Amino acid sequence: MTLSIVRNAPLKSLNTFGVAANAATLITLEHEAQLPELRPALAAEPAPFVLGGGSNVLFTADVPGTILRVRLRGVRIVSDDARGVIVEAAAGEDWDGLVRWSLAQHCYGLENLALIPGTVGAAPIQNIGAYGVELSDVFDSLDAIDLGSGKTATLSAADCAFGYRDSIFKRPGPNRLVLRVRLRLSRTAPARLSHGEIGQALHAAGVDNPTPADVADAVRQVRMSKLPDPARLGNAGSFFKNPIVSAAHAGQLLAEYPGAPNYPAVLAGVAARKLSAAWLIEACGWKGVREGDAGVDARHALVLVNYGQATGAQLIGLATRIRASVHQRFNIRLEAEAVLLPTPEGWGP
Ligand SMILES: Cc1cc2nc3c(=O)[nH]c(=O)nc-3n(C[C@H](O)[C@H](O)[C@H](O)COP(=O)(O)OP(=O)(O)OC[C@H]3O[C@@H](n4cnc5c(N)ncnc54)[C@H](O)[C@@H]3O)c2cc1C
């Protein structure tokens, strides 16, 4: 099967914001056997944007270059011994599908990451995390191809340099396409309930000794009660990252607002505090605000939503105003968690 290459391709159905935009070229990679065709196809456009499920992207305008959509499929158990179960999944597999599959195989460790939208290949890019667990907690290794040189390499967790919603893939360097990810799961992992909400949901359901499947169910239930379903209301989950500030800066804020949520964190190797971006945004009065079809979700201030026909420009305009007001009031500069393509002025690194 040859590579699918489409010119002036519509992207509305390929992003969970449901924003209308076009890409000059859209290439879809379905099988690894198509890789030899890829480099010649990219010769004219050497820096494509790699797209998975489009659940962490805002197309702020039409994309003048090439988008390379990854739809590689396949999941298997590589090894199963006393050290754990190594599960390998191709980059185009649906993340939540993998969570369900692993539970069905009695391989545990992904429960807290249930229902996160998107693909397996994107999971390492921002080191997805939820309810006290990050991908890095279960990560074994991945294989990626450098789209510039055509060389494939295996990267360990140390190579990936995972951080909070961060990894080597977000820093300047080779344009890598993740081909497959290996995770180290367990046959016996205890439930991870450090995040209070999940424990509370299980307690409310009368579950005292939760199985991993119970935890996954509780995570799904909590997520559905808090986050808008992109199938009904366009969004990309948390639009901003929770800011990490120095302990001194956090101290000033907490002196004025003792109730502001804050958590231990590390900033440039020094103990710091992570603040809640949702709290900061809500404190500036943005929760539930709607400007045309662009808005801030009424239940979760961190989630920007598209009520129907919002454009990328309208959504980034709203985000820019939110960021300016948080900066003015708290002297904290919010960073986007979502990838902005093309990168608008003022939002670069
Ligand atoms: C309702 C909702 C809830 C969410 N909740 C969470 C949450 O709890 N925790 C969390 O961490 N995230 C969350 N997200 C964000 C999103 O689900 C994750 O970031 C997810 O990993 C994105 O996957 P994707 O396939 O859609 O990636 P895309 O949005 O397509 O791409 C995201 C980034 O990954 C890169 N990329 C994608 N595939 C590959 C590949 N194969 N190789 C190299 N680079 C690649 C892209 O270039 C881009 O930089 C949420 C999103 C939504 C809509």
Describe this structure in words.
The protein has 349 residues and is an alpha+beta fold. Among the domains are: 4-70, Uridine Diphospho-n-acetylenolpyruvylglucosamine Reductase, domain 2 (2-Layer Sandwich), CATH 3.30.43.10; 75-185, Uridine Diphospho-n-acetylenolpyruvylglucosamine Reductase, domain 3. It is 23% helix and 29% strand. The chain has helices spanning 35-42, 95-104, 157-160, 196-204, 212-226, 247-256, 277-283, 312-330; strands spanning 4-10, 22-29, 49-51, 57-59, 63-70, 75-81, 84-90, 129-130, 133-134, 139-146, 152-156, 176-185, 234-238, 244-246, 262-267, 270-275, 290-291, 294-296, 303-306, 339-341. It has a five-stranded antiparallel beta sheet. It has a four-stranded mixed beta sheet with strand order 1-2-5-3, covered by helices on one side. Strand 17 and strand 18 form a beta hairpin. Flavin-adenine dinucleotide is lined by residues 16, 49-57, 70, 91, 116-119, 121-123, 125-126, 128-130, 176-178, 227, 230, 235-237, 339.
Entry summary:
The chain has 8 helices and 20 strands. With 349 residues, the chain is an alpha+beta fold. Bound molecules: flavin-adenine dinucleotide.
Bound molecules: flavin-adenine dinucleotide
CATH topology of the domain at 75-185: Uridine Diphospho-n-acetylenolpyruvylglucosamine Reductase, domain 3
Strand composition percent: 25-35%
Q: Could you tell me how far the N terminus lies from the C terminus, measured between alpha carbons in angstroms?
A: 39 Å
Tell me what the CATH architecture of the domain at 75-185 is.
2-Layer Sandwich
CATH class of the domain at 75-185: Alpha Beta
Strand order of the largest sheet: 6-7-12-10-11
Going by helix content, strand content and strand pairing, the class is alpha+beta
CA-based gyration radius: 20 Å
| Helix-strand sequence | EEHEEEEEHEEEEHEHHEEHEEHEEEHE
Shape: globular
Compute the number of strand runs: 20
So how many helices? 8
Helix content: 10-25%
Give the biggest beta sheet.
5 strands, antiparallel
- Unreliable spans are none
